[in-house]
Amino acid sequence: MRDDQRPTHWEISDKLVEYPEALARMKDHVDRLARGEVGELAWLLEHPPLYTAGTSAKAADLTDPNALPVFNAGRGGQYTYHGPGQRVVYLMLDLKHRGRDVRAFVRAMEQLVIDTLADFNIVGEQRDGRVGVWVKRPEKGFNKEDKIAAIGVRVSRWVSFHGISINLNPDLSDYNGIVPCGITDQGVTSFEDLGQLASMPELDGALRRNFERIFGPTVRV
Fold first, then answer.
1. β-strand 145-156 against 187-188: which pairing, if any?
2. Which three-class secondary structure state does DSSP give residue 33?
3. Residue 190 to residue 84: CA distance in whole angstroms
4. What is the model's pLDDT at position 76?
5. What residues are labeled active site?
């Protein structure tokens, strides 16, 4: 929760947003937020199919360099995929008003995803040493799990950016061009892959309800 209870702006883009455009807007908003010129922002969107490389990305994990466009993200983590049917939530929040604890902030983002999944009868779990949210898949074998949501964050002057991606119904075959997050022994899944049918507006509504419970009030822009 923010210490002064100021609401976070909640914005949803209806059209696919190109990655360079999103990155430029995030950087601009972070600079202005750090100077106190604008308020906090949760920006919900979808990207066209692409891969992003975090600061720990290894060249060998880009298994098909020609499959999709690749962009340097500037966030932590390794390679990840974005595309239609995946809800991306970019969080530009002022951690000076939220405890100045990056690890707790990442855990809170994971909890936001877990609570949102629970609204659709999906059991998501955290794993020590593996950022993101995971779903057990015993039908695939002993100790098998799939990632349903990725989390990557960067903090500049105690302002966060980047955030969360949740797989609603993307084309999971697009993940074949990378080793997602550098993890070779587990897979990826989605609402659709798990047999849970939901619309993007339904997912957005659950995200907002759970965001307000964990992070505080929002106002739609």
1. parallel
2. helix
3. 12
4. 76
5. 181
- Cα torsion angle, 37, 42, 48, 51, sign: positive
Tokens of 35: 């100077």
What are the counts of helices (DSSP H) followed by strands (DSSP E) for the chain? Answer: 3, 12
Kindly report the pTM of this predicted structure: 0.95
- Name the phi and psi angles at 144, rounded to 5: -80, 140
Give the three-class secondary structure for 214.
Answer: helix
pLDDT in tens, 152-187: 999 999 999 999 999 999 999 999 999 886 666 679
Tokens (6 digits) for 84: 């239609």
DSSP 3-state helix, strand, coil percentages of the chain (rounded to 5)?
A: 30, 30, 40
Which neighbouring-strand residues pair with 42? 10, 91
Q: How many residues does the structure list for the chain?
A: 221
d(CA 112, CA 190): 16
33: tokens are 């937020």
Rounded Cα distance between 171 and 129, Å, is: 27
